[in-house]
Structure formats: structure tokens, C-alpha cells
């Protein structure tokens, strides 16, 4: 049975991995965004570089990625389900024909 330390290490590992992905995403977003003045660009750069806060800077990209993965899993589940149903009907037809 896992103890609380294992759960804490797992949560910290997930946060560190997400942060490692979020930093490049936020820097790319900062570079592709047009900044009209220095102050607005600087504020967004700070927003992009502060740990854990930069999740909010690229939240829409994370939502799009999550939606894509959910749709992909639903599509894969449907394909597997259709294949299983077809296999069951095939086996039933084989048994009936014997």
C-alpha cells in the first residue's frame, strides 16, 4: 500500500515534468506574439518565465492538447469497440455455421 511520501513524490514529478514542457511553450508563445511597447512585452515575458504562473500564460494551448488527446482516446476506443463487435459476430457466425 503506497504511503503519503510516494504520492508526494509522484505529484512533484508530474509538476516538474509539466513545468519542463510549459517553459518552452510559453517562450515560443512570447516570441510569436507582437508586443507594441516594451512594458507590455516585458510583463508578458515575466509572466512566461515565472514558475507555475506560466501555466496560465499558455492555458489555451494546454486545453487544446487535452481536447485533442480526449478525442483521440474516444476515436481509438470506438475503433477497438467496433473491431471487438465485428470479431464477436464473426465467431458467432462461425459457430452457427458448424
Key features?
mainly alpha, 98 residues, single chain
Tell me the layout of helices and strands.
Layout: H1 4-32, H2 38-49, H3 54-57, H4 59-97
Helix pairs in contact: 1-2
Describe the overall structure.
- The chain has 98 residues and is an all-alpha fold.
- The chain contains four helices and no strands.
- It has two domains: 1-55; 58-98.
- Helix 1 (4-32) packs antiparallel against helix 2 (38-49).
- The N and C termini lie far apart (50 Å).
Task: Summarize it.
The protein has about 100 residues and is mostly helical. It has four helices and no strands.
| Fraction in beta strands | under 5%
The largest β sheet comes out as: none
Overall average residue pLDDT: 90
The helicity comes to over 70%
Number of helices: 4
Shape: elongated
Structure classification:
mainly alpha
Low-pLDDT sequence parts: none
Number of domains: 2
- First-to-last CA distance: 50 Å
